[in-house]
Write a structure and sequence with these properties.
The protein is built from six helices and six strands; from the N terminus they run H-E-E-H-E-E-H-E-E-H-H-H. By secondary structure, the protein is α+β, with helices and mostly antiparallel strands.
Length: 171
């Protein structure tokens, strides 16, 4: 990731999100190479970026906290929030370990990345990838079937070329 935010913008545009709502956020981490023992600044800085959106968790906490069954994991692993069943269920927002669920105050519902399920379900959609993945100029985001050992994502993981976040992202 080069921190260009193209993934975040593609998501925002594709989902027609309001001004202050972002379902995909690119976090920036920076450190300098200071010699703290001498109290000097090294003059070099290293930045890294991490795009964060709903991770469609294997054991989705957002699914567990909702008594109305508003949050559902599809057979393909995509976690979807039903807006009708989710009305007033703000605990779904609070349950997310990566802070990827947003509260829509106007509609009184939690909302989050859908992994562009509406596009992936469309047989006429040529991309077969979420918009954020399509838009990424450096292939920092990869989409695929983790259960298929021949998929691009599975091959990259096997080769050690991909880092999967295994714990909540500090936000």
């Amino acid at each position: 990731c080069i921190g260009c935010n193209t993934c975040a913008v593609a998501c925002k545009v594709s989902n027609n999100l309001p001004k202050d709502v972002w379902w995909n956020v690119v976090h920036t981490e920076g450190r300098d190479f200071a010699d703290t023992s001498k109290g000097t600044y090294g003059g070099e800085m290293q930045l890294s970026w991490l795009p964060v959106n709903c991770m469609h968790c294997e054991n989705a906490v957002c699914e567990e906290v909702c008594p109305t069954g508003a949050t559902v994991k599809r057979d393909d692993g995509i976690v979807i929030i039903d807006p009708v069943k989710a009305k007033g269920q703000k605990q779904i927002v609070d349950a997310c370990p990566v802070g990827a669920v947003y509260w829509n105050e106007e509609e009184q519902i939690p909302q989050k990345c859908t992994m562009c399920a509406h596009l992936l379900d469309d047989p006429d959609y040529p991309g077969k990838e979420p918009r954020c993945v399509e838009a990424c100029p450096n292939q920092a985001l990869i989409f695929g079937d983790l259960d298929d050992p021949n998929s691009d994502i599975s091959k990259r993981i096997a080769e050690g070329k991909v880092t999967q976040p295994l714990s909540p992202i500090p936000i």
